[in-house]
Design a protein that fits this description.
Elements (H helix, E strand, L loop, with lengths): L9 H10 L25 E3 L9 H20 L2 E5 L5 H15 L3 H6 L10 E3 L14 E6 L10 H29 L14 H6 L7 E7 L9 E6 L5 E6 L5 E5 L2 E4 L7 E5 L1 H6 L9 E4 L6 E8 L6 E2 L14 E2 H15 L13
Helix pairs in contact: 2-5, 3-5
């Protein structure tokens, strides 16, 4: 696949890592045996239509049941799918077409020239810090801040990115508000005047200037040993909204096992991030997940990350969940610690850095 001029030089750059693991078949599951069902596992699916139709007592009861399903899925799974979510399928299809065209640009242009009004640093590929195959992500991506654009009105790619960002932001804030509001009910640790702990205040810290969208492409990886399209990790944000194509490859940890997620192009995937797990004192789960590279097919996805400002204080809300399990920290401190851990160890250590001793 490296013959095409749009492909990043992944094989030429990382062949030595692939060759050092010629029999690496544990990509199926390097823990305790994975779900080997090629069809994959279907995540909980939640229909959000009732949240938009609250004109009667019956509709409000359905909406309350929907909110309870969201809370339960975030607590038990950390991952779930939503339908009737308010992001038009036609818009997602338009973004997919634009995304394919963006990644079909010659590699030397992607690497040297900014796309539209994106910063030159928005394009990334591979894993420059990888010292072993476990640290290598066989992928390329555009990391796009969701700040107001200065692009011309005829920049169709930029405009569709803006529309998707706006729609996913609205959805993420609605879902985050539901999770935060439920967590704060009956939390005796909240005192009078703690305005920063209201559901609206917490979610309002995640603005267009702090969130970002990521366009992902996972090229085919011809190495017989297999490779990660995206290394095992948890998300460092508050909440993530993901749209993936029908190729598959996403896996997550459930009950100590890696399970493959069955693609559902008609739904969006939602997952809890590290900040929400810490803020909820482990009630909500930020689950480790990964993407497996295919040896024959490329894969596309788009992810929206709901992030607060760097000075936002993450302080565990205990409620009935016992004493705080984490030290308080700001999002900025968390991001800096992740960067330092990656620099020193080659991998993200995450919330364990801030967990209090048992």
């Amino acid at each position: 696949m490296e013959d095409y001029d749009y492909e990043p030089p992944l094989m030429a750059t990382y062949r030595h890592l692939l060759d050092s693991h010629p029999h690496r078949l544990d990509v199926v599951d390097h823990r305790s045996g994975a779900d080997d069902d090629e069809e994959g596992f279907l995540l909980p699916v939640i229909d959000l239509s009732s949240l938009l139709e609250q004109s009667s007592s019956g509709a409000e009861a359905a909406a309350e049941q929907c909110r309870a399903s969201i809370v339960r899925a975030a607590s038990e799974w950390g991952f779930f799918q939503v339908t009737n979510h308010g992001v038009p399928q036609a818009l997602l299809d338009e973004l997919h077409q634009a995304q394919v065209a963006v990644f079909r640009r010659p590699f030397h242009l992607k690497a040297s020239q900014p796309l539209l009004d994106f910063s030159p640093e928005s394009y990334r590929w591979g894993t420059p810090t990888a010292t072993c195959l476990d640290q290598l992500s066989w992928s390329e991506a555009y990391h796009i801040p969701t700040t107001n654009t200065t692009a011309a009105a005829d920049d169709k790619t930029r405009l569709v990115v803006e529309e998707v960002s706006t729609a996913m932001s609205k959805l993420a804030q609605r879902l985050a508000g539901i999770l935060v509001a439920d967590l704060l009910l009956g939390d005796s640790s909240i005192g009078d005047g703690e305005d920063d702990d209201t559901a609206a205040a917490v979610v309002s810290r995640c603005t267009r200037s702090t969130c970002f969208l990521r366009l992902n492409r996972y090229p085919p990886c011809p190495a017989p040993s297999g490779a990660y399209g995206l290394c095992p990790h948890t998300d460092s944000d508050f909440l993530t909204i993901l749209h993936q194509d029908g190729v598959g490859g996403l896996q997550l940890v459930k009950a100590g096992r890696w399970v493959a997620v069955k693609p559902n192009p008609g739904a969006l995937i939602v997952n809890v991030g590290d900040l929400l797990q810490a803020w909820s004192n482990d009630r909500y789960r930020s689950v480790e997940h990964r993407v497996m590279a295919s040896d024959a097919r490329e894969r596309f996805s788009v992810a929206f990350f709901l992030c607060p400002s760097y000075d936002t204080l993450v302080r565990p809300r205990c409620g009935a969940g016992g004493p705080p399990r984490y030290e308080s920290f700001t999002f900025g401190e968390y991001r800096n610690q992740i960067r330092e851990d990656v620099r020193l160890t080659g991998r993200k250590l995450g919330l364990q850095r801030f967990r209090k001793p048992e």
